[in-house]
Batch of 4 targets.
Target 1
Amino acid sequence: MKKGLLVVFGLLCMAAGIIGMFLPVVPTVPFLLLALWAFARGSERLHDWLLHHPRLGRRLRDWHEHQAIPARAKLLSVGSMGVAALWLGFFSGIPAWAVALALAIMAYGAWFVLSRPTL
């Protein structure tokens, strides 16, 4: 992939991550991690800027150096998945197969989050 496209992809992911800081249904850190990955391959300057950003960089450095997730983030992540699972199961009215698929994806996400080291 060309460096210019990687930079554009990284900027779009960074924008989505920043939006996620204000909208509870949009994840922040996964988009910022994608941006960091894209910048590492497309722009060393943007990669270093994001990794050392005073507001955004700490969580990214934690992941980059230790693949670790803070306890508060784990609690919020798994808790919000639990609330979403309850809503899907009892109030959504969507087909059972779709609920089962969503629950399976959430279960994998919860397992992944909980299996990472805690800082």
Target 2
Amino acid sequence: MSLDTATVRRVASLARIRVEEDELPRLQSELNGILGWIEQLQAVNTDGVEPMAGGGTQALRLREDRVTDGGIQQQVLANAPDAGPEGAAVFFSVPKVVE
């Protein structure tokens, strides 16, 4: 497959890339080179070759689906500039936004 200048201009427009007219031939050449490599890869016979990663018969290990607070409440609140008074309910204190 070979791209013409009009197609390269359209691809650049769709990608929202400004390409000057004098740059079009160079970009056309680069894109045609990339498409050539893709054609070579598609020509490789992969019948009987199992995928190395992803898909296939591999299954993800599952963990129990449960809700927790993370167990690090004090570490999280240590980042707060004001976490409320000692002994009170633990929360982030933020400035009033609406008057």
Target 3
Amino acid sequence: MKQKGSGRNRVNFFSYKLDLELRESLRLEQKLRKAIRNQTLEAYLQPQVSAEGKVIWAEALVRWFDPEDGPISPARFVALAEETGLIHGLGQLMLEQVCFHLSQHRGYLNNVGIAGISVNLSGRQFYSRTLLRDIKRVMAESGVEPEQIEFELTESLVMDDVQMAIDVMRRLRDLGCRISIDDFGTGYSSLAYLKRFPINCLKIDRSFVEDIPHDPHGSEIATAIIAMAHKLRLEVVAEGVETEAQRDFLIAQGCESLQGYLFGKPKHIQEYVDQGRALFFENNPGEIKSVINKQLRSE
């Protein structure tokens, strides 16, 4: 009897726990739906630097700061967005924010070295029938130059339907956008497929970078990816670079670009715009007087 009773208690416990999880998921979904509708999710940028240490590009990362719950992890709400179909609205919002800033503040972003921004595409977005139409609309409305945008696709995503993926990638390239394969080395693509992908860049996954140069296996894999990419005339970006030893090793192997906390944590896109604006006025002091005079005349 004791065993049966404890068994019933376990069922009750798991039922109660599952009920709490479902309620929390529903609560978060409603909040996320409202956040997308009110456009309160924000685009942050993490810089990518050249082998010489100069910022040349950036990756857009979504962040959510809820008034009640505070900062909510992307690992938590992006997965929820995928499950509920909200990922379309979320992805569209991020693309709109990125294109707006690239269009309105291109000069300021260039001042800090950001020539363009990478935007992540989820599986649902990538295989959506409206993807190309939505991207064209945002670019037309913002006036952004296509070469300023790079779309990042995970390796596993493009292997779900290889032929369709190749077709969509070609259409994106025809628009003038760049394409990169993110988290490379963690999926199951073969070289036979890789050589057919119309891409510009491979991003080495951080799992191969974190123990460089002490782990011989990670170091060898990173070296092999760089060499293979160059044979295919692709650029390489290494993610998760946090130490000078990692940086020096990757540069010695010919890696063109690096991304990670060693060069900066993600910052709000407006911070880069403000930084670029400050540099502009620092180098063009006469413009400050011109701006002040315009403001005074408008008043």
Target 4
Amino acid sequence: MQGTLYEIDIRSILQLIEQGQRTGELLVEAYPASLGSPDKQEWERSGELRSSESRTSSGVGQYWLVFFVGGKIVYAADRHSSSLIRLRDYLHSHRAEKAIDLLQSSSLATTNEPEYAYLWLLLERGAILPSRGRGIIESAIEEIIFDLLGLRRGTFIFESGDAIAPQLTALEVAPLLTKTMRQLQQWKQFHPYIQSPHQVLLVNNDAKLKSSLPAQAYGSIARWADGKTSLRQLSRFLNRDLLTLSKGIYPYAERGWIHLIDPVPRRKQTASSGSNLQKGDRAPQIVCIDDDLSISKKVEYILVERGYRAVAIANPIEALGTVFQLAPDLILCDIAMPQLEGLEICAMLRRSSKFRQTPIIMLTGKESFTDRVRARMAGATDYLTKPFGENELLLLLEKYLNWDSYLK
């Protein structure tokens, strides 16, 4: 099941998955996967897209992943989940965020959802209680559904697959939709002073704000109104409902004492040199071919955040045409894929003089001597065993790409 949000809305998609008692993952993007598609060009000309619905300044668009088991939602992630920012936010109010740094990535379960894996490891180590773990997952799901139901333009694809495991909780779609639709109606009351949960706070009139608020409340606002902390992050830090928090801030935003603005995008660092790539510089082009949507999109996000140009391709049949069109500087390709195996793709590319010297890194779900031999025979340059961390990925890219040549 796939399509655009012109054809069907998110609410109907979720209801269909629930009614069919489907197990798998739903990927929703706020822009068409093809940069040159007519729909994308039309949307950009319309000027109607909000920051949460458009291609971000880093070059990678917003996307969401929702995981289902038997039609119930068991986990949901967005483009920030792999960096553990969201999990750290949730753990902040319990002074447990530093526990993440004590965990060894090698101890993680074999999952490519880092946030989910770290959360389970925290539970196993006794750093948080199961009730808190369930609360974090349920809050994360509710946040994602809130964002998705407010989305009007985008593309989606649902793929049946194995259930994400282990499972800590499962939410029924119908009551969640009812609750979230009611929240969205209440949220509209805050417009135009508060428009997005991703907006950050700035104090515009410190004297009036200080005289109108209790000392503790003023101290909290003054601390987090730093132009960096979003309204949603603040609700996580304070362990308070987003609507309740926004309702408390709204009178002061209406008077102009507090401003809520879209966050200023961070400047990205290159993977190796640490220097900033200026707009127009030819950053290395990377293509990631993996039929697992969660992996390919996370790789794309990680690389674009570090200054690379990256494209995720989930369909191995379409991959060859796209690769020949883009002529990337490096290719990441999963071995085990339906329809067309990754080793076949590698061998086909090697038969073309265009890709004789292009580094091709094979992604494998198991580290075995046989896989390594088969990869080498197909012409692979190297391989990376899943699940892999961000540092492993970046170090391997540094090994085969020379940043200096792209900065000249």
